[in-house]
Specification:
Layout: H1 14-24, E1 28-34, E2 40-49, E3 52-60, E4 69-75, E5 82-88, E6 100-105, E7 125-132, E8 143-149, E9 159-160, E10 180-188, E11 198-205, E12 212-218, E13 225-227, E14 240-249, E15 252-260, E16 265-272, E17 279-280, E18 297-306, E19 309-317, E20 323-329
Antiparallel strand pairs: 1-20, 2-3, 3-4, 4-5, 6-7, 7-8, 8-9, 10-11, 11-12, 12-13, 14-15, 15-16, 16-17, 18-19, 19-20
Length: 332
Amino acid sequence: MIDFKNTSNKMVDEKMMARIYNELKTPYKVGPVIKLDGYLVDSPTVFRHNDKWYIYYIRFVKADASGYETVLAESDDLINWKDVGCIFKRNGENHWDSRQCAGYGAFPDINFGGSNELEKVNDKYYMAYLGGNLDGYETDPLSMGLAYSDNPVDVNGFKRFEKPILSPFDNDVREHESLTIYKGYLFRDDAMTTGYKYVNVYNAKPKDNREVIYLAVSNDGENWERYGDKPIINDEQFRITGDPQIVKMGDIYVMIYFVFTGITTYNTFACSYDLQQWTRWGGEPLIQPQFDYENVYAHKNYVIRHNGVVYHYYCAVNDKDERTIALAISHK
């Protein structure tokens, strides 16, 4: 484990937080844009590659014998999506990641309104994934794996590392990540704010099932060390703080994430100059349940800006047991 760096304790002020909220807000809800018969869908990653839009998302069936798989879809307009194929499928090989394999695109351009492309590291494209070997919905324990490919949109091109990059069984596991490690968001930090070139922000939990957000760091994008002895987001009023995404606005890191109150969910954000100390937004959520297709949960974000329009993708769950990927935008 690596200690946090000494910082200037500079915090993002209320005026700047309000400005960033106005940059992020998406008041116009388009509704579900990905819905699969026979499957529940979740956790989008949206990116651009060779002048086309793509999305990684995860799917699972409703039965208890389900588990996460990873799917690729494509689009010309960020609204209408067509499936390309399944990247990670469950199997019966009895490996640590045989029954759960939920992938998330790694090393995107984090500049808000930038290229929205996945960046090559070590001349490869990477995907972090949540992996496990038990059936069911996110059945504990889960670890974080890493896969790589020469082509991020070749559904047959990804090769997985043999072992997890972060696991609750690691010797240096921290207090609140001793049961399961969830979604990893890996990015290149040109400012090297932590002293390392690459950063991994992720949610995890111990046996009390209350999820918090941690950091890990790397100089090669493949070998990761835990950064800091405590979570960077740990709000005891929430059962879950999860699925963090980082975008950068000038010198400010903006973390978009969701919270589960114990009753409902919503997407919100926090801001930091140093990736250690975060000012949390206390105003109106970025996304919250509103319409019939999301009247149970609205959560698990992925936000991009393209041609001045903000697109906020998220998982929408309703009381008909439908789980879709929905979209809200900043401008009609």
